[in-house]
Amino acid sequence: xADAEQSEAPVELQGRNVIYCGxxxxxxxxxxxxxxxxxxxxxxxxxxxxxxxxxxxxxxLEAATxxxxxxxxxxxxxxxQKKAAKAEAAEQKQASKLASSVVTIKRIERNKKKFVTAVxxxxxxxxxxxxxxxxxxxxxxxxxxxxxFATGSSxxxxxxxxxxxxxxxxxxxxxxxxxxxxxxxxxxxxxxxxDDKKKKSSG
Amino acid sequence: xxxxxxxxxxxQKLKSSAQRALRQNxxxxxPLLTPYIEExxxxxxxxASMKLPxxxxxxxxxxxxxxxxxxxxxxxxxxxxxxxxxxxxxxxxIDRGAIRFVLSGATLMAPxxxxxxxxxxxxxxxxxxxxxxxxxSIVEDGRWSRELAKGEPVVIMAEGKEEACAVGTLAAxxxxxxxxxxxxxxEDAHYLGDxxxxxxxx
Lengths: 203, 202
Description:
The structure holds two protein chains of two kinds. By secondary structure, chain A is α+β, with helices and mostly antiparallel strands. Helix content of chain A is 47%, strand content 16%. Chain A folds into two domains: 15-96, no CATH class; 101-196, Translation Initiation Factor Eif1, CATH 3.30.780. Chain A has helices at residues 2-8, 37-47, 49-55, 58-66, 70-100, 131-149, 172-182; strands at residues 103-111, 114-120, 153-157, 163-168, 191-196. Chain A has a five-stranded mixed beta sheet with strand order 3-4-2-1-5, with helices on one face. By secondary structure, chain B is of the alpha+beta class. Chain B is 23% helix and 27% strand. Chain B is built from seven helices and twelve strands. Chain B has helices at residues 16-29, 37-40, 79-84, 96-102, 111-114, 174-180, 195-198, and strands at residues 11-13, 47-52, 56-61, 64-70, 75-77, 91-94, 108-109, 138-139, 143-144, 153-158, 166-170, 184-191. The model of chain B has no long low-confidence stretch (mean pLDDT 86). Classes of the chains: A alpha+beta, B alpha+beta. At the A-B interface, helix 5 and helix 6 of A face helix 3 and helix 4 of B.
């Protein structure tokens, strides 16, 4: 039976491989609805020039708009504009957040001579990651730290929102260097070292 | 259904008996997938399920999302799967003007289908007949060869586009849509760029 099927439609039996836009993840023909049209266009032109010329050719665009009434066209354009503006604003916000965010490396005294080192504020450098992925990102970074210093390293949620990575031992100086070296997009000036003595709860 | 970004839950491997059941269920719902079933669900593959909010379950094979299911109802294909096997799912087509609404999660309304750019099943088509499950396909210009009943899963194509833009279940049969020409047709669809689409399944 398999033979019969193969001779019938050998090509169709394979699933199609669809190309997705590297910017907005939609199939490129839907990029115009994604809100990041300009970027998508650049990406497509670079990676799939043939597809680019097919989708964004003047004739194709004309055919696309011809079907709509003038009124609907206007509305669609307005909508697209609003979306693009929104995406742009989000991007800017992200950039400014990145510039103003500070990574704090805190040395916390645990027990007289024992310390842990906490890293707070890495969220902003999760970069273009989605919310879902940030947790994964943190876990990965924590693992990296642990490997580097051969100590335990964990991710904890802060009550104020956000997450911190706690590394066993006093590794604040090395940690700073390590972060700078490994995560190039963290600017040096944005790293802050703090020494935090434990409150005298023990008396 | 997935307007908001989803939080991925840990994946759970499915027992082989559950896999077999799923496979049968799948073929019962989508008989046209029969020739491709080995490619979609290889017997040796390790299928995993992922719990999503609102009692939805997503089935994932080697980090490729395949199907999702809402609380025991029909299996619905993930759009990435639809893109791989577009001919295996009953489809309707919306006109260009409706695309942007559907892609922002609006309920699909009948006028988007009845207008010049929309495509409903062929006029005078018959509903599904027993034993003729394999004899359906796209005929002439994006129209499906039989009427689709209320509650049936359907893929939503778009005028001027090659790929599907949404997947959902019909809130009204296609014959009813033709007759009435207004009202909601597909509610709570899974569309391009929604939470399910952007979900990280790795």
